[in-house]
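Ticket #530: bound-state structure for 2-acetamido-2-deoxy-beta-D-glucopyranose.
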Amino acid sequence: MHILSSLLGVCTVCAMALPASAGPTRRNFTPDYVSHPDRTDAIKDAFQRSWDGYYKYAFPHDSLKPVSNTYSDDRNGWGASAVDALSTALVMGNADAVAQILAHIQNINFDVAVGDISLFETTIRYLGGLLSGYDLMTTPDALSDDISINSTLLAAVLSQAEHLADNLKVAFETPSGVPDNDLQFNPPRRNGSQTNGLATIGTLVLEWTRLSDLTGNPMYGSLAQRGEWYLLNPQPRKLAEPFPGLVGTNVNITNGQFLDGTGGWVGGDDSFYEYLIKMYVYDPVRFGYYKERWILAVESSMRHLASHPASRPDLTFLAMFNGRKQQFLSQHLACFDAGNIILGGLVLHQERYVQFGLDLAASCHDTYTSTVTGIGPETFSWQDNGTLAFLNASNNSPAPKSQTDFWKRAGFWIDDGQYVLRPEVIESYYYAYRATGDTKYQDWAWDAFLAINATCAAGSGYSSITNVNVAGGGSFQDFQESFWFAEVLKYSYLIQADDAVYQVQADNSGEFVYNTECHPVRRFGPRPYW
Ligand SMILES: *[C@@H]1O[C@H](CO)[C@@H](O)[C@H](O)[C@H]1NC(C)=O
Ligand SMILES: *[C@@H]1O[C@H](CO)[C@@H](O)[C@H](O)[C@H]1NC(C)=O
Ligand SMILES: *[C@@H]1O[C@H](CO)[C@@H](O)[C@H](O)[C@H]1NC(C)=O
Ligand SMILES: *[C@@H]1O[C@H](CO)[C@@H](O)[C@H](O)[C@H]1NC(C)=O
Ligand SMILES: *[C@@H]1O[C@H](CO)[C@@H](O)[C@H](O)[C@H]1NC(C)=O
Ligand SMILES: *[C@@H]1O[C@H](CO)[C@@H](O)[C@H](O)[C@H]1NC(C)=O
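RESOLUTION: The complex was predicted; output attached.
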C-alpha cells in the first residue's frame, strides 16, 4: 500500500489498491537494435536543409518563415531555433551547426526580450536546450569524433542558462509560490496573471532541478518543486481530482487551489503527467512521490479514459474528462501518452503499462495512415463503443454527416486538420521501438518522416500545413517551429540510428532522460535496473 497519506497527510485516494497483477515482472528478453544509415543520412539532409534556410534568412531571430524567406521573433528574439537545434546537431554530429550555435549562445542578451515571455516555453526550449547541450558536451561518449568543444564556449552555455533562470525566477514571486507564466523583461517582472495551467506549472521541474544540480545552487529546483507541490496535492480535492491522480487544469496562483476538474493527456495538461515519471527517472531518491502520482494517473486512465471507437473497436484512445464525464476527443499533442506510458512501464517493470502504451501508439499510427497525406491531424474525435444507451449519450454523439465514411473506415473524425510539425506520434514510435526492438516501429517512423518530408518541404525549409486530408496538405502556413529541429528531426533520427549513450534503454540503464522538447538531460540519481 502507498505511503502517500502518512507522508503528506492529504491523500484521500490511498485506499485505491493496485490490481493484484501489478507486481513488477522481469522481462525475459533484451531488444536487439538495428540502424539504417540510408535513413539517418536522409534525415540529416532534412536537418541541413532546414538549418541552411534558417541560418540564411532568419538567424539570429527565432523562427524561419520558409515560404517568404523571412523570420519571426515568436520566442522573444533570442534565436529559439538555434538553441533548440543544439542537442540535435550534437547527436547528428553536425560540427558546423554546433559551432554556429555555440558562437551565438555566448552572445544572447537574456536581459532584453521581444514581446511577452512564457515561463513554460522559455524553460522547455531555451533552458532545456542549453542544459541538454551542456550535458551532452560534458559526456565524452556522447560526442562524435569530429566535434571538439571550446571550453570558453562550453562554460558560456551553462552561465547563460543560469543568467536566464535568474531573470525568469521573478515568476515564482506569488503569494502561493505557484508561478505566473507571463513575464516581461528589462527589468524582469510579472505581467499580472491571476491563474496558471497544469502543464505550464508542471513542466518546469526537470529543467530547474537540473540547473540546481549542475550549478550547486539549490534555489532553482526549490522554486519549481514548490509550485509543483500544489499539483501533487490538489485542492479542493473533490473538484480538483475527479479520478485518482487525474487533476484539473486551471490553478489560482494566489492560493494554489484548482479552479476546475477538467483535463486529460491533452495540450494544457499533457507534460505535467509526462514529468511525473521523468522526475523519477531523473532521480528516484528525491522524486518517489512523483512516481506514485504518475501510477495513480495511469491506473485511472486505463480504467476510466481508455476508449474504443464504435466503428473501430480495435483502436484505443484516451478520452478527456470534465469532472467524471468523459469527452471523446484527442489531439496530435496527446499522442505522446503512448511513449510516456511505455517509458514508465520499462522503468517500473510493468509490462501491463508497456502493452497499453503500444496499443495507444498503434492507434496514433492509424491517425497517420488514414489520411490522404499520411500525416495525422491536430485534433480528432470519435464515438465510444459503449452500451447501446450510451451511444446516444449527450457526450457521445455520432460522426458529422460529412465524415461518416471516413469515420467508418478510420475510427475517428477530424476536427482540425492542421499539421504544425509536431513530434508526438514519432516520439511514441521511438519509445515503442526502444522497448521492443520491433523494426515495425522504425518503418512507421520512416513512413511518417517521408510523408512529412514530401508534404511540408516548402521554400527554404519546412512549413506547417492547413489540411492533412487533402493532397499536398492544403496550403503552407509559412512557419517552421523551433521544435521541428529539437523534436521531429531528433526522434526521426534516433529511432533509425546506432545505439548510443543518450539513447533510451529498455532495461532502464540509459544515462539520459528527455525533456518535453526532446532535449536529453543527464540523469542524476542511482539507476535501479535489472
Ligand atoms: C574559444 O572561444 C573563445 C570565444 O569565442 C575564443 O576567444 C577562443 O580563442 C577560443 N579558443 C580556442 C582554443 O579556439
Ligand atoms: C500582459 O498584460 C497586458 C495588459 O494587461 C495584456 O494585454 C496581455 O495580454 C498580457 N500578456 C500575457 C501574455 O498575458
Ligand atoms: C484566487 O484566490 C484568491 C484568494 O482566495 C481570491 O481572492 C481570488 O478571487 C481567486 N481568483 C480566482 C481567479 O478565482
Ligand atoms: C468495445 O471494444 C472493446 C475492445 O475491442 C471490447 O473489448 C468491448 O467489448 C467493446 N464494448 C462493447 C460494448 O461492445
Ligand atoms: C438514439 O436516439 C435516436 C434519436 O433520438 C433514437 O431513434 C434511437 O432509438 C436511440 N437509440 C438508442 C439505442 O437508444
Ligand atoms: C525530402 O525532401 C527534400 C526536399 O523536397 C528532397 O530533396 C529529398 O529528396 C526528400 N528526401 C527523401 C528521402 O525523400
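RESOLUTION NOTES: Residues 37-57 form the longest helix (21 residues).
TICKET STATUS: resolved
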